Amino acid sequence: MKARRVLALAVLAAAIVGCKPQAEEQPAKPKPPVILVEADVPPRPMKPELPPLFDDIERRTFQFFWDTTNEVNGLSPDRYPSRPFASIASVGYALTAYPIGVENGWVSRTQAVDRTLTTLKFFRDMPMGPQRTGKGGYKGFYYHFLDMQQGHRYDSWVELSSVDTALLMMGVLFAQSYYTGDDAREKEIRAIADTLYKRVDWPWLQQRAPLISMGWFPESGFIDHDWMGYNEAMMVYILALGSPTHPVSPDAWTVWTRTYDNDWGVFQGQEYLSFGPLFGHQYSHVWIDFRDIQDAYMRERGSTYFLNSRSAALAQREYAIANPAQWKDYGENVWGLTASDGPQNTTQEFRGEQRQFRHYSSRGAGLRENFDDGTIAPTAAIASVVFAPEEVIPATLEMHKRYGDYLYSSYGFLDSFNPSFNFDIPLKTGRIVPDRGWVASDYIGIDQGPILTMIANYRNDFVWDTMKKNPHIRRGLERAGFSGGWLTPEGEDQPMELQKDEKAAAARSMGIAESRAAAAQEQKNNANSNRNQPQGK
């Protein structure tokens, strides 16, 4: 995609010419037409070659899903080696991982078909209903965490989750689109996948229509919070819009994007739709190629969700370089905040201040949803490789070189580490490495999944290209108003540039300096308070 274009470029060119020494007058030449261009959406990144370390990361991360999944029922653990329960989101990533293993020759297609069919049959036949116990789901949705053996709701604090069901269904539909063979078992995979997706009753969770609730508890009913703002729930709405049996109406996407207003702005020199933790900029992108396609919101902004995620990754790197809280080791090649494990819920003195630390929590830096306690998660950077490879590759190499002797093991990078945490207190999880800080003891499925799948997308668009074949995903995107790029109907010319609202672009260009100055000042004024602000999602 061409860079956003602004009139400022023409002005800059004129200024450069004006700075040159005066020369003899020359005969006037016809003036070339002025090209209006929009500013400051970064161009699509270059594609440097991945170093050999990424081959090893990819293989080890695949083995996490292959080795730790229950072979009898296909349930994948939320985390390992502690392995307390299965996560339906982790299952969605596992279903996507198996074909990556096939394509790389790590497992045979027959093995992958066996594992996938076992998984899909188990979810098809799982007990469903409104009862508090003994069930795995209700209304086509599934509980966030399930017992690893029986597949029942793990405990009373576990919700029927709309977004985790969406992550599961992305894996289900990916399997449907990958296994295209004519043999009976691959046909059965496609049929069961269709059944699972079609029975999800999306409108049932529209208690405050047209938005979709985060979930439901059999004890207390629907969760009061709907999916709004900007975050990973793009996939929830796209799947709900694409359903051939229980669809939501297109105004769901319209109202969802209206809630973006508080999240667009400037952070660390990047103007973008912000969400603090990087997982919100990654999860939907694992399966959907958002390059060169636009909905009405991004069309008006002259950008794409792909470029938006690039800006988010670059902003986090700049935040680490600035390091306003002065955490240990932060810098240009040590960065990445997302949802991850942490050492403990505690307040300790660090650099003469009382600092809050957390166990498992969303961590991020942006306009909102901010929390930073010095805990870095390798998945945050590595899963951004498709967006900013020129920054992610050096960061991955540096983290492996600097911390690999205790952070990198059987299944790749452990979940997270915190060089600043050296306090002699009981830990919730992980361990203290003398003079090196805290390091996690678990791998977490929803952090392993984006590492594996995004490396595959970076290499050859594998997950993206497979998912483009799925009619349900295409239908959901089109009903949300997406067009252009790979959604352009066959036989039609693709537009030379992304569509944009020229009047809106001009208005933004006129006010861009003022908005950035104001945002920079606000960021400076609120740096200390934002540092310890509780995560808002």
UniProtKB/TrEMBL annotation:
Region of interest (Disordered), ranges: 484-537
Biased composition (Low complexity): 517-530
Keywords, in A-Z order: Signal
Listed transmembrane segments: none
Stretch forming the signal peptide: 1-23
InterPro entries listed in its UniProt record: Glycoamylase-like_cons_dom, UCP028431
Signal is among the record's keywords: yes
Pfam family, one: Glycoamylase
Glycoamylase-like domain segment(s): 225-471
Name used for this protein in its record: Glycoamylase-like domain-containing protein
Source species of the chain: Stenotrophomonas aracearum
